[in-house]
Design a protein that fits this description.
Strand content: 35-45%
Radius of gyration: 16 Å
Helix content: under 10%
Distance between the termini: 44 Å
Order of helices and strands: EHEEEEEEEEEEE
Number of strands: 12
Shape: globular
């Protein structure tokens, strides 16, 4: 498969460290949310637990349902103009579905993206969780860097759920994260070691 030329590498993981564009896997601005969700999940899963780098070019990509992030995954774009628009669901980091669920889901990065829940359904835009056990089987060693997250209002003008929900999560960094129009900007249970720099939560609660 000929890969689209994209901007630089950000992670030495999978594909011999070479990043690939989501477009090369069939994620298109003209697709339905279901088509894009299937293609994006296949792209993320392409190397199994070895993960890899996936670049999101500028554009608005409809997504229907949850997208599961696996170990060693970097999902990155070009900033606010790289836009994943979820009609429902969101990005999920779930250590219980890892190849070995007795260890944590780790070494992941989500960067330079806009994520939105545009539908009427509620729930977190980014959902991180383990099985509620020890730090060794949660979500850890990750980074959110320059991520803009918005919920939406349904027909009753009720805000969507959390922008970011963390349960059984450990040791990660958030840089330049903005959350708008969510019931709670961020919600934490059983967390430790989350470093925050320039994190802004508007129109909701922490």
């Amino acid at each position: 498969m000929a890969l689209t030329k994209i901007k630089g590498a950000v992670w030495d993981s999978g594909d011999n460290g070479l990043p690939a564009s989501i477009v090369d896997f069939g994620v298109l601005t003209t697709n339905t949310g279901t088509q894009n969700a299937t293609a994006l999940q296949a792209a993320i899963n392409r190397n199994g637990e070895d993960g890899g780098m996936l670049f999101v070019p500028q554009g608005e990509y409809a997504i229907e349902g949850d997208i599961n992030i696996v170990d060693n995954t970097v999902l990155y774009g070009e900033g606010y103009t790289s836009f994943l628009n979820f009609s429902n669901g969101g990005l999920v980091l779930d250590s219980t579905i890892a190849e070995d669920p007795t260890i944590q889901l780790h070494k992941w990065r989500i960067a330079d993206l806009r994520l939105e829940r545009s539908g009427a359904t509620t729930g977190p835009v980014i959902n991180m969780f383990g099985d509620g056990g020890t730090p060794n089987d949660g979500v850890s060693w990750g980074q959110l860097d320059t991520v803009f997250i918005t919920g939406s209002y349904n027909d009753s003008a009720v805000k969507s759920g959390e922008g970011i929900k963390c349960s059984d999560t450990y040791i990660m960094d958030w840089y330049n994260v903005v959350v708008l129009s969510c019931t709670k900007g961020a919600y934490f249970t059983d967390v430790a070691g989350i470093g925050c720099l320039d994190v802004r939560l508007h129109g909701g609660e922490f």
